[in-house]
Design goal:
OB fold (Dihydrolipoamide Acetyltransferase, E2P), 4Fe-4S, 4 iron, 4 sulfur cluster binding, S-adenosyl-L-methionine, 423 residues
């Protein structure tokens, strides 16, 4: 069969004799391949690649020995330029589905290899010992990670010591996980296990933190929503955002790479009005610890809203130290979105929701008098759904759209879309 396109999950798409889609991983557009049909998948079937009879000129040798086994990377066999074009096309397709066809999308600015500063590693205890790494493709269990060309080398350097550590932690019965954030104060580890943490385990973790140079180790029970407790800490746990060192909670959400963060900040600032009144009011929703709030405060007075109390407190404290014009307010925006009256007088609003998007808030914004919305999205499907509310309201247009690729070699893509009223 001939591969006609690459789907949203990164698999090649061909069609069988009945014109039903067949999804073949590790293939590229234009390639003629042999594949073994498998189980049903949506309206078509999954397939297993047997051979590439006619390879694409864009096919490259994957740099990682785990490619094909690891569930994280899906297009490592594709050259950089067509990957960037594919990700930009995915954003353009989302805009079209949302009611804004024909928008030019700047090609995805990709973060370099070995730049990801955040990783969530799965841990399993089995008959052969401890396995630690990303989830295997199509499986719930991890594979034993020995190399990675996406994460920062400092994260990869922790994998072998963590593997040895978990042999001595009784709280791990069978399954757990380890989230590593590379903060500016050093690696920050959030360990989750399926058993309780004993006193001896705490001593083991404290010793490991000192040996591995980890600033903090937090722990919680796997499979629960319990807030993590501090098991060991040697110094502050803080991230540098817009030149401000901000204490963050265990597992705090930070942009995956510094390059991706810089690209998002630049695109958001470019989305602001070229001319604003003196002392303009800017609104930011889902502000987090201030990745966007702090740069925005150089352009106007920022009313920032965020649901996590620790993030609100940290952002207000940082704003106070820096003299930044930011007022952070705690608010559960999923349950209590901002209403039109609360938007009065704002020159622009920045919306950076979680993966699920912000359907209710988008509908309110579309009906409001706000003149400009800069939407930061990490989910093309949610972006398309939320944009449809603006397309249904007269007067809105997409002024600018930028694709950003900080999830190297994955199917993920982020977008910064500027919506404005007027011709």
């Amino acid at each position: 069969m001939t591969i006609e396109a690459i789907g949203a999950a990164g698999d090649g798409i061909a069609h069988d004799a009945a014109r039903r889609p067949v999804f073949v991983p590790f293939t590229l557009p234009g390639e003629v391949v042999e594949a073994e049909p498998g189980p049903a998948r949506g309206e078509g079937r999954a397939a297993t690649l047997s051979a590439v009879e006619t390879p694409s000129p864009d096919r490259v040798v994957p740099p990682c020995a785990h490619f094909g086994t690891c569930g994280a990377c899906v297009v490592q066999h594709w050259a950089d330029a067509p990957v960037a074009a594919w990700k930009a096309a995915r954003v353009a397709e989302a805009l079209a589905r949302g009611g804004f066809p024909g928008v030019a999308v700047a090609p995805a600015a990709a973060s370099p290899p070995n730049s990801r500063r955040r990783a969530d590693l799965a841990i399993r205890r089995g008959a052969e010992g401890i396995t630690i790494g990303f989830h295997a493709r199509g499986a719930a269990d991890p594979f034993d990670m020995r190399e990675c060309h996406v994460v920062d080398p400092r994260i990869l350097a922790l994998v072998a010591p963590l593997r040895a550590l978990m042999t001595r932690v009784a709280a791990l019965h069978r399954a757990g996980s380890a989230m590593v954030n590379l903060l500016d104060s050093g690696p920050d580890l959030w360990l989750r296990t399926d058993g309780p943490l004993a006193v001896k385990d705490r001593a083991t973790l404290a010793a490991f933190a000192g040996q591995a140079g980890i600033s903090r180790i937090a722990w919680s029970r796997e499979g629960t929503r319990d807030a993590p407790e501090i098991a060991a800490q040697d110094g502050p746990a803080a991230a540098l955002l817009a030149g401000n060192l901000i204490p963050v909670a265990p597992g705090a959400f930070l942009q995956a790479t510094r390059e991706g963060e810089a690209a998002i900040v630049a695109a958001v600032l470019d989305g602001l009005p070229r001319r604003m009144p003196g002392k303009p009011r800017l609104i930011e929703l889902h502000a987090g610890y201030g990745t966007l709030s702090l740069p925005l405060s150089a352009r106007g007075r920022v009313d920032a809203y965020e649901g996590l109390p620790e993030a609100v407190a940290a952002l207000n404290a940082a704003a106070g130290r820096a003299g930044a014009r930011i007022k952070a307010t705690r608010r559960d925006l999923a349950r209590q979105p901002l209403l039109p009256a609360e938007l009065n007088g704002a020159a622009a609003l920045v919306l950076d929701p979680p993966f699920a998007g912000a359907a209710e808030q988008a509908a309110i914004l579309a009906r409001s008098a706000i003149p400009r919305v800069v939407y930061v999205s990490c989910n093309p499907a949610a972006l398309a759904r939320d944009l449809a509310a603006f397309a249904r309201s007269p007067g809105w247009r997409v002024e600018r759209a930028v694709a950003i690729d900080q999830f190297l070699w994955s199917a993920g893509v982020e977008a910064v879309v500027t919506l404005a009223r007027g011709p």
